[in-house]
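Query structure, 519 tokens:
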């Protein structure tokens, strides 16, 4: 049988793949034998899954503080709605102030993500959480003090703009730790990227189970302002703890000095994928090709590109399509938050608002767990084109339900349909966007959710005030329907190159060359 070779882009001479692959395997085995203190959990593990994901070195150091730090995202809008509705007596005003904070977050979050990609996450997060805590406290004081409406809108702008974007930062850390799927364990790492996207979706939805229930309980059982004050406190403490975990954050693409860039690369090489990267650094230093050559060359790549900032992630056509898709998902969150609040108030049971929204979020969480545990045969693009129509269909009956048990069941169904679309969208970012712009890309999607949530909260509030709570439930259907139309028309922009990993011993970046067959 004819051997498969890859032409060298430098001189055009073919290099036999089987010999290189064997050399790579021998080098990797020898390196692991020399450094058994830090084995590669992905190389040693069997089928990729949640257990293997959480065994990634350094993962727990940012997973736990990241969970606490992302709670404010689920608490801010519902906390504003409950407080402003209490002080003004209008769902329309409450939804509009909440929408102002959401729009502000959607506008400024991608800029914060871009700065985090360039200068490091801690450099952006620490001043951000301090500003956010102060802004939310100011908004609370103004609302309780009977300040004019314009003052509430003004205060809502910095409160939303400074929301810590911990979720996108955690996703960027997973992408950095798991690498780009090249090398001997590239297939397993690529599978773990999907698992990581599912894990983060589950974590997000777990916050949406806890956040609204906690906020509603505090606002209705303690004080109308207690929910926002708890949000500011969690944001401050969790954000500072997360920012302190500097050894797992991605290397900035625009460090201030080349020496700092080299230090970042060395830190990432030592904290990334464990023994495989350590062994690769030793092997590269000895002049041999190994699976960890990319980790060893990280400092050099960072230094060479230290003063070349990455282009905006929004320049990728697929990211723009995904932003519209996530706008529709945001309309579900915002529409349900306001409409459920109005519905439970109308029936005289405001305390079950958090329970109903928690059931919706629980469905999202369960679906996320299942999605992460499955091995998918269809491409992410195909999965999104299946999941999103199901989500639109599930929202189509919300407006017609008037009984609490039926509304809870339908909310559970909507939640089950959201997770596959969210997970697939975040998985596509890993394939469409270069590593130096992923935090920004993730914040564009998170900001799109916030923007859709803000617009839906405003529309649902106005409809609930004018026509009753049932009218507000039309908003999720309209939002997902428009987003589905865009997705179908522009689905070609989500296509990703289907290239498998090609093993090579060269250290000049030939891992993704197209293999050709010669006689």
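Result returned for the query:
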């Amino acid at each position: 049988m004819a051997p498969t070779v890859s032409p060298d882009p430098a001189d055009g001479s073919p290099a036999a793949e089987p010999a290189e692959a064997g050399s790579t395997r021998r080098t990797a085995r020898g390196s692991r034998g020399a450094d058994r203190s830090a084995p590669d959990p992905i190389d040693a593990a069997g089928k990729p899954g949640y257990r293997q994901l959480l065994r990634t070195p350094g993962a727990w150091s940012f997973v736990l503080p990241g969970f606490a730090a992302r709670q404010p995202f689920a608490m801010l809008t519902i906390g504003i709605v409950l407080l402003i509705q209490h002080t003004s007596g209008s769902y329309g005003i409450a939804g509009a102030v909440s929408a102002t904070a959401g729009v502000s977050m959607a506008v400024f979050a991608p800029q914060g993500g871009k700065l985090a990609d360039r200068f490091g996450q801690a450099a952006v997060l620490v001043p951000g959480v301090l500003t956010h805590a102060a802004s939310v406290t100011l908004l609370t004081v103004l609302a309780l003090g009977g300040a004019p409406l314009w003052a509430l809108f003004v205060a809502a702008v910095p409160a939303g703009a400074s929301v810590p974007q911990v979720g996108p930062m955690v996703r960027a850390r997973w992408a950095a730790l798991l690498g780009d799927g090249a090398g001997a364990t590239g297939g397993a790492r690529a599978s773990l990227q999907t698992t990581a996207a599912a894990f983060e979706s589950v974590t997000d939805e777990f916050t949406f189970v806890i956040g609204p229930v906690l906020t509603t309980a505090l606002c209705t059982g303690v004080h109308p302002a207690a929910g926002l004050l708890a949000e500011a406190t969690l944001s401050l403490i969790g954000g500072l703890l997360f920012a302190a975990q500097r050894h797992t954050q991605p290397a900035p693409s625009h460090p201030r000095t080349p020496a700092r860039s080299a230090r970042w690369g060395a830190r990432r090489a030592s904290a990334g994928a464990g023994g495989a990267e350590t062994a690769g650094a030793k092997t590269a230093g000895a002049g041999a090709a190994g699976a960890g050559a990319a980790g060893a060359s990280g400092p050099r790549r960072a230094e060479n590109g230290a003063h070349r900032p990455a282009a905006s992630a929004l320049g990728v056509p697929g990211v723009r399509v995904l932003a519209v898709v996530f706008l529709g998902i945001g309309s579900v969150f915002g529409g349900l938050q306001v409409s459920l609040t109005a519905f439970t108030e109308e029936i005289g049971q405001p305390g079950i608002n958090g329970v109903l929204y928690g059931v919706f979020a629980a469905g999202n969480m369960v679906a996320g767990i299942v999605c992460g545990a499955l091995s998918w045969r269809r491409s992410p693009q195909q999965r999104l084109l299946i999941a999103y129509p199901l989500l639109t269909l599930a929202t189509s009956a919300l407006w017609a339900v008037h009984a609490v048990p039926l509304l809870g069941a339908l909310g559970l169904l909507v939640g089950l349909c959201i997770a596959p679309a969210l997970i697939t969208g975040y998985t596509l970012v890993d394939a469409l966007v270069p590593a130096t712009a992923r935090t920004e890309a993730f914040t564009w999607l998170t900001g799109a959710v916030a923007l859709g949530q803000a617009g839906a909260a405003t529309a649902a509030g106005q409809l609930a005030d004018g026509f009753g709570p049932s009218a507000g439930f039309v908003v999720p259907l309209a939002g997902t329907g428009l987003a589905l139309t865009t997705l179908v028309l522009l689905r070609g922009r989500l296509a990703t190159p289907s290239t498998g990993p090609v093993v090579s011993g060269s250290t000049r970046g030939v891992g993704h060359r197209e293999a050709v067959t010669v006689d």
